[in-house]
């Protein structure tokens, strides 16, 4: 079956530009997560969606970061006025439910490079 | 607060030898523990998890892990490593929520 998909796979942008990263979760999964993987910080939690609601946005590093989820499915992570420190791999995951015991299944990631 | 430590940045073993990747955790409560593997330029792939019950958990590709509450450890093991097991391995923990806290990762190299 289809796994989590993300697009684009790679994105190069100039400092100050806005970028949108897309995630398509596994069909039927109600929970969706965004993580960031960078050399200096390892894997960091960014945001969690249950359905279309985001009860925990605590991991978003600044107000330049925002995310939404529509129709209980696709999610978009938007970074405004990108900075070089935003360069990282952005990983999306989904799970059947939102409990801590649920297995999160990850997409291949979007590699973002801010010049 | 919850945290995970992977004390070894790198593990090198010969093909056919046993492989162990270490993980210790620090949480206030009963943890859910996970192992993921990442191949170059790929996302994280789920290997196995401990929720409750039997301390020995078996997962994908012949991997297993043992939950040890007294030592707060969840080491990943494989009796006979393959060259194709060479990858980056992450241990992760969650409590009764949804947020995974990951270790820094351990690079495994299996030489032929």
Tell me the strand percentage band of chain B.
Answer: over 45%
Largest interface: A-B, 28 and 25 residues
Number of helical regions of chain A: 0
Low-confidence stretches of chain B: none
CATH class of chain A: Mainly Beta
What's the CATH H-level superfamily name of chain A? Answer: Immunoglobulins
Structure, explained:
The complex is a heterodimer of chains A (115) and B (112). Chain A has strands at residues 5-7, 10-13, 19-24, 31-38, 42-50, 53-56, 65-69, 75-79, 88-95, 105-106, 110-114. With 115 residues, chain A is mostly beta strands. Chain A has a single domain (5-98), classed as Immunoglobulin-like (Sandwich), CATH 2.60.40. In chain A, strands 2, 4, 5, 6, 9, 10 and 11 form a 7-stranded mixed β-sheet that branches. In chain A, strands 1-3-8-7 form a 4-stranded antiparallel β-sheet, with no helix packed on it. Chain B has one domain (3-111): Immunoglobulin-like, CATH 2.60.40.10. Chain B is built from no helices and 12 strands. Chain B is globular and about 40 Å long. The model of chain B has no long low-confidence stretch (mean pLDDT 93). Chain A binds chain B through residues 4, 6, 31, 33, 35, 42-43, 45, 48, 50, 56, 59, 91, 93, 95, 98-109, 111, and chain B through 32, 34, 36, 41-46, 49, 51, 90, 92, 94-105.
């Amino acid at each position: 079956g289809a796994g989590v998909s993300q697009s684009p796979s790679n994105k190069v942008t100039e400092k100050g530009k806005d970028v949108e990263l897309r995630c398509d979760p596994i069909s039927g999964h109600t929970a969706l997560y965004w993580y960031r993987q960078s050399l200096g910080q390892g894997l960091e939690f960014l945001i969690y969606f249950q359905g279309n609601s985001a009860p925990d946005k605590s991991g978003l590093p600044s107000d330049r970061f925002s995310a939404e989820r529509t129709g209980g499915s696709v999610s978009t992570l938007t970074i405004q006025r990108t900075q070089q420190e935003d360069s990282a791999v952005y990983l999306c995951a989904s799970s059947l439910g939102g409990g801590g015991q649920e297995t999160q299944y990850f997409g291949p990631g979007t590699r973002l490079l801010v010049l | 607060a919850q945290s995970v430590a992977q004390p070894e940045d790198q593990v090198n073993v010969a093909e056919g030898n046993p492989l162990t990747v270490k993980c210790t955790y620090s949480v206030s409560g009963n943890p859910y523990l996970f192992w993921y593997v990442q191949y170059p330029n790929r996302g994280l792939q789920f290997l196995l998890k401990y929720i409750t019950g039997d301390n020995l958990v078996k997962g994908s590709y012949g991997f297993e892990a043992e939950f040890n509450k007294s030592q707060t450890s969840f080491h990943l093991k494989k009796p006979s490593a393959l060259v194709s097991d060479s990858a980056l391995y992450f241990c992760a923990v969650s409590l009764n929520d949804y947020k995974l806290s990951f270790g820094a990762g351990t690079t495994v190299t299996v030489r032929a």
